[in-house]
């Protein structure tokens, strides 16, 4: 229901006043703390939030072994705590990908962390190679790309990435996780924090684990959402983990009266559809969700499977999958294109793919044995092609050096809260359990009915606040999570059955 216009205007003016007060308080507190800082901060705005922030940059050597060589700026944003006397340990947010910039994608997460923000500064750092920190961009498609270009299964073309590589004013070998965590620790020191808390999502959990191992004395506590331990070799398990998520979807549909009635034999029909798309990919006339114009596109198996994997990331989108499969089996690919394009607009275009390959080509691909990709993808709807494409790009991408023992499990007795979504197609709960084996002071919470990343779901924000307030895993009562369930499946375009 829409608010009455008069109330909406009053609310808007009130919000603007509160935001202005927050900015003023942030500036005043920032000025008071300035002598302790080596980063000059000034008021700024972050995407996805009305909260005032202070932004600046720390200049670091691209190659830390050559301090007089090329210098790069690491962008930093501080959202000052609302309390007059905030806790001394700020919460640092580490973005996912690899390749996302914290200052570009973490704004909406500040709302979920509102309770933490009351008492703690929140710090966002664009990891080197992302956002405003000397980004290694390599867009899959130009801004004016057609729908056919955006859906193409040839987006990870060798020619495109060779061109990007040749155009960089950078040494891609210097954009690995360990080097980035050295930057992060220098940011911590430059901002005057003796100890910090960490929150990482997806790849950000790997970054947090590496920081925990290499700079553990500076960590008070950590929250890892969608855990990617060092034993998870990207992209080796893409197909296997996505299949687990799809199998859960089929199971839940069979157990749901409305879904099973509307879509009988869904799993069998899905298999038949994939075989058809592989042997006789149709050319479908669909509306471009961006331009609204109708266009003709080819929908092959790889395009369809890759798009569905993306849709599985978010449980509300995933509730459309039975309907998407049913319509596609009847040669209507409009719902598929709309859902897959929504993910592309929200995710793929925020990635610095050059940074992604600098990480994966140094830290993952060298540890994948010949034949493992095909073995792990056998019998899955996604198949081996996506992982093979990553490996092909890595065959010529410059490879950075890693510290000794980099792939060993991270061991720490710091308090760590591990969070997993039950339905996650990329970092399912088993990976958090793997990390937990060497984190004796950790607790693992699995959130039912949720996909990739759970921080904003249900009572999880309150649990994170309680955990960070006490920095203890013992006695964390998570019973408030029990009511959460997968959203009901859409059986028509009008929504779930009442």
Summarize the structure.
By secondary structure, this protein is an alpha/beta fold.
What labels describe this entry?
498 residues; alpha/beta; Rossmann fold; nine-stranded mixed β-sheet; two-stranded antiparallel ribbon; 20 helices; 41% helix; globular; disordered N terminus
Topology:
Elements: H1 5-33, E1 42-45, E2 52-61, E3 71-79, E4 90-94, H2 102-105, H3 109-112, H4 114-119, E5 122-125, H5 147-151, H6 158-167, H7 177-191, E6 196-201, H8 203-214, E7 219-225, H9 238-255, H10 257-262, H11 266-279, E8 283-287, E9 294-298, H12 301-311, H13 315-318, H14 321-329, H15 334-346, H16 353-363, H17 372-377, H18 385-394, E10 416-421, H19 429-436, E11 442-447, H20 460-470
Structure commentary:
The protein has 498 residues and is an alpha/beta fold. It has 2 domains: 247 residues, Alpha/Beta hydrolase fold, catalytic domain (Rossmann fold, 3-Layer(aba) Sandwich); 212 residues, no CATH class. It has a 9-stranded mixed sheet, with helices on both faces. A hairpin with a 6-residue loop joins strand 1 and strand 2. The protein is globular and about 65 Å long. The N terminus is likely disordered.
């Amino acid at each position: 229901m829409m608010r009455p216009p008069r109330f909406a205007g009053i609310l808007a003016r009130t919000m603007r006043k509160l935001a202005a007060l927050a900015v003023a308080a942030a500036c005043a507190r920032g000025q008071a703390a300035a002598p302790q800082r080596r980063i000059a901060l000034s008021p700024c705005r972050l995407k996805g939030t009305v909260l005032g922030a202070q932004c600046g940059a720390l200049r670091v050597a691209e190659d830390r072994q050559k301090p007089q060589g090329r210098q790069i700026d690491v962008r930093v944003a501080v959202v000052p705590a609302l309390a007059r006397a905030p806790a001394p340990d700020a919460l640092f947010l580490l973005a996912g990908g690899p390749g996302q910039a914290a200052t570009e994608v973490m704004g909406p997460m500040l709302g979920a962390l509102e309770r933490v923000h009351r008492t703690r500064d929140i710090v966002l750092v664009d990891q080197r190679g992302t956002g405003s920190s000397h980004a290694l961009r390599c867009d899959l498609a130009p801004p004016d790309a057609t729908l056919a270009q955006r859906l193409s299964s040839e987006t990870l073309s060798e020619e495109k990435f060779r061109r990007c590589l040749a155009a960089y004013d950078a040494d891609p070998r210097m954009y690995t996780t360990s080097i980035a965590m050295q930057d992060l620790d220098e940011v911590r020191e430059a901002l005057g924090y003796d100890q910090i808390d960490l929150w990482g999502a997806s790849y950000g959990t790997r970054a947090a684990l590496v920081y925990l191992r290499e700079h553990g004395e500076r960590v008070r506590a950590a929250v890892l959402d969608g855990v990617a331990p060092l034993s998870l070799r990207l992209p080796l398990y893409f197909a296997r983990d996505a299949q687990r998520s799809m199998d859960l979807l089929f199971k839940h549909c069979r157990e749901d009266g409305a879904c099973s009635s509307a879509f009988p034999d869904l799993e069998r029909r899905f298999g038949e559809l994939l075989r058809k798309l592989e042997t006789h990919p149709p050319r479908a006339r669909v509306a471009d969700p961006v331009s609204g114009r109708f266009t003709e596109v080819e929908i092959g198996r790889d395009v369809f499977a890759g798009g569905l994997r993306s849709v599985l990331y978010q449980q509300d989108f995933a509730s459309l999958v039975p309907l998407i499969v049913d319509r596609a089996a009847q040669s209507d690919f409009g719902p598929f294109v709309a859902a897959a394009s929504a993910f592309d607009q929200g995710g793929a275009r925020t990635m610095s793919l050059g940074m992604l390959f600098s990480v994966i080509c140094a830290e993952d691909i060298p540890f994948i044995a010949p034949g493992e990709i095909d073995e792990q993808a056998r019998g899955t709807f996604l198949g081996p092609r996506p992982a093979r494409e990553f490996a092909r790009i890595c065959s010529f991408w410059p490879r950075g050096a890693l510290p000794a023992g980099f792939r060993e499990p991270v061991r720490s007795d710091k308090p760590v809260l591990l969070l997993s979504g039950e339905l996650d197609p990329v970092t399912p709960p088993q990976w958090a359990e793997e990390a937990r084996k060497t984190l004796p002071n950790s607790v693992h919470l699995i959130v039912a009915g949720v996909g990739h990343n759970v921080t904003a779901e249900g009572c999880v924000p309150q649990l994170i606040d309680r955990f960070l307030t006490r920095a203890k895993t013992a006695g964390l009562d998570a019973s408030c999570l029990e009511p959460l369930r997968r959203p009901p499946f859409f059986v028509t375009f009008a929504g779930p059955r009442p």
